Amino acid sequence: MMSQSQGIHQLLQAEKRAKDKLEEAKKKTGTASGKGKRLKQAKEEAMVEIDQYRMQRDKEFRLIQSKIMGSQSNLSDEIEEQTLGKIQELNGHYNKHMESVMNQLLSMVCDMKPEIHVNYRATN
């Protein structure tokens, strides 16, 4: 946030310098034709200066943005590796314990022992 306000401040300063150059050009020229040419030249110089500053700030912004986006892609790659490792680990546990769990489940379902429930009361 600080760099944005700094950049805005610098842009405003560049525009102020451009206005000062225009005022200076107005004062220096005495004739109407010379005055118009000098104003046009000062305006062009100011526009060039503003464009150069804008390009410099844009380049800095893109550099910072590429650093941030690059670090985000590294994080996503790292997370992807961790996820694949966890999936492989879970598949290994599944294959290791699948048969014993299936046998236990089948024995509970198939080997029924009829018993009377403890809360059952015989009514006569």
TrEMBL record:
Any one GO molecular function term: ATPase binding
Pfam families, per the entry: V-ATPase_G (PF03179)
Cellular component terms (Gene Ontology): cytosol; plasma membrane; synaptic vesicle membrane; vacuolar proton-transporting V-type ATPase, V1 domain
Keywords noted in UniProt: Hydrogen ion transport, Ion transport, Transport
Biased composition (Basic and acidic residues): 14-27
InterPro entries: V-ATPase_G (IPR005124)
Family under the similarity heading: Belongs to the V-ATPase G subunit family.
Name under which the protein is recorded: V-type proton ATPase subunit G
